[in-house]
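STRUCTURE:
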């Protein structure tokens, strides 16, 4: 193609042709209204009214902030989250009025600056469904109580919304471990109304009226396995939930794969750091930079993909990141060194 270009073309014309040529070889799987790099698809500020088609299969973070998306997009978004196993879905500043329950999907939502309508269902939204477990950034408005107006989701109660329905979040199944006296919990969160009763094999294990209605387990044996029945009794309605608990005898301290902890990147380049861990119970992972969690480290060059993976952009010098893996049996840390090279 280039050998057919007349030699007398101006430099401006050549620049335009080269730009068009580069564009023709760009990632064809990326929607035209987005940019795609290292699993991050950025479709922000495009005045979108629908979710774009052709999102790449390797997408882990989808940024659709500052658009015109409405509740009609939730079905497509949740289908994408399930099919692609999205980790982060950024929906800040759109026109959503509802927030769905993501259930067992691993995706976390960032949905601040949307005209969310408060209803009784939002009381059962767990903090884990929101980016960095931060529900405090999300506000909603209510017409059921005109004295309230806009309120943060983290401050909502059944009394504020004048709810009669039972609202409770609890897993359908969970695996616990036989590890002596260490505390393990079956998580439970409910609205302000009502009392929770936990029963196992016909025996009352715990009773509480607190919003945190989690069941704490210690010194578990095989007798603690099986079906747990949670009864939620509220002034106008009762509801029953069933939680299947399995027990693993094997347990171990966290371990981190240190086979790839020295990474080289071209100056001002981008590098992806993944902390591969093992252990039972499965450890939680935290990335540190300069002895601070990257979740609180305000640096535009650090992108949190998921709990185990971060992306560092515009690397200009040697940097050291620490992966910390924690479970009830211990803590393990491994340093990842990023070095720049000139090519």
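SEQUENCE:
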């Amino acid at each position: 193609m280039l050998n057919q270009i007349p030699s007398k073309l101006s430099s401006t014309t050549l620049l335009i042709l080269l730009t068009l040529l580069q564009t023709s070889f760009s990632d064809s799987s990326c929607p035209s209204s987005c940019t795609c790099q290292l699993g991050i698809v950025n479709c922000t500020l495009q005045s979108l009214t629908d979710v774009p088609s052709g999102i790449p299969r390797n997408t882990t973070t989808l940024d659709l902030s500052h658009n015109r998306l409405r509740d009609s997009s939730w079905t497509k978004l949740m289908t994408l989250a399930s099919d692609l196993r999205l980790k982060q879905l950024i929906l800040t500043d759109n026109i959503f009025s509802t927030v769905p329950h993501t259930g067992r999907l691993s995706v976390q939502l960032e949905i601040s600056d949307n005209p969310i309508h408060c209803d009784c269902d939002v009381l059962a939204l767990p903090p884990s469904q929101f980016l960095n477990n931060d529900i405090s950034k999300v506000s909603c408005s209510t017409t059921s109580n005109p004295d309230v107006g806009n309120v943060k989701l983290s401050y909502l109660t059944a009394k504020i919304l004048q709810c009669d329905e039972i609202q409770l979040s609890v897993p359908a199944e969970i695996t616990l471990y036989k590890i002596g006296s260490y505390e393990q919990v079956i998580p439970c969160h409910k609205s302000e109304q009502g009392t929770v009763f936990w029963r196992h094999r016909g025996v009352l294990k715990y009773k509480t009226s607190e919003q945190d209605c989690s069941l704490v387990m210690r010194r578990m044996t095989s007798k603690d396995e099986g079906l747990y029945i949670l009864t939620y009794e509220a002034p106008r309605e009762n509801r029953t939930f069933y939680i299947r608990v399995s027990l693993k005898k094997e347990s171990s301290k966290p371990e981190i794969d240190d086979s790839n902890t020295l990474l080289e990147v071209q100056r001002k380049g981008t590098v992806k750091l993944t902390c591969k861990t093992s252990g039972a119970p499965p450890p939680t992972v935290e990335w540190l930079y300069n002895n601070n969690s990257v979740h609180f480290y305000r640096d535009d060059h650090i992108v949190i993909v998921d709990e185990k993976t971060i992306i560092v952009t515009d690397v200009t010098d040697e940097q050291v990141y620490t992966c910390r893996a924690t479970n009830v049996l211990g803590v393990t840390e491994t340093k990842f060194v990023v070095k720049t090279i000139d090519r």
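REMARK: The longest strand covers residues 330-341.
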